[in-house]
Design goal:
Helix content: 55-70%
Order of helices and strands: HHHHHHHH
Number of strands: 0
Radius of gyration: 14 Å
Largest sheet: none
Length: about 120
């Protein structure tokens, strides 16, 4: 799960229809929300933890997902996804994450948890 997916989960849980509502609730500017939802920046661990707790998501899984998303080195990214997979062992999303990381070509693809879970990996 990347920041955009977490923000969208927050919106669904809070029944918000606009990013402006999220910005106001979390004390962000509209510009910062835009940067989060376009993937230019990721949430801090502190904010991700707060959001996860607020909407009932597994905080550790969210933090592991964000660490995987943030990793820029392919080997580190793979390691984070392996850790996430082990943490969520038995869950269908873990299988999808591992398969996408190991089977997707490593050139040019943006393997975020959101893209992997949703099946969207741009060519």
């Amino acid at each position: 799960m990347d920041s955009k997916a977490l923000i969208q989960a927050y919106m669904r849980a809070k029944k918000f229809s606009q990013y402006q509502q999220v910005a106001a609730e979390l004390g962000f500017t509209k510009s910062h929300i835009s940067s989060l939802t376009t993937g230019k920046v990721q949430l801090t661990d502190t904010t991700a933890k707060k959001i996860a707790e607020d909407i009932g998501l597994d905080v550790q899984e969210v933090l592991l997902s964000l660490a995987a998303v943030r990793a820029t080195d392919p080997e580190l990214k793979k390691a984070w996804y392996n850790i996430l997979s082990n943490y969520t062992k038995g869950a269908g999303t873990a299988v999808a994450l591992v398969a996408a990381v190991f089977l997707a070509p490593s050139h040019g693809h943006d393997l975020t948890a959101h893209n992997v879970i949703s099946g969207y990996v741009e060519d």
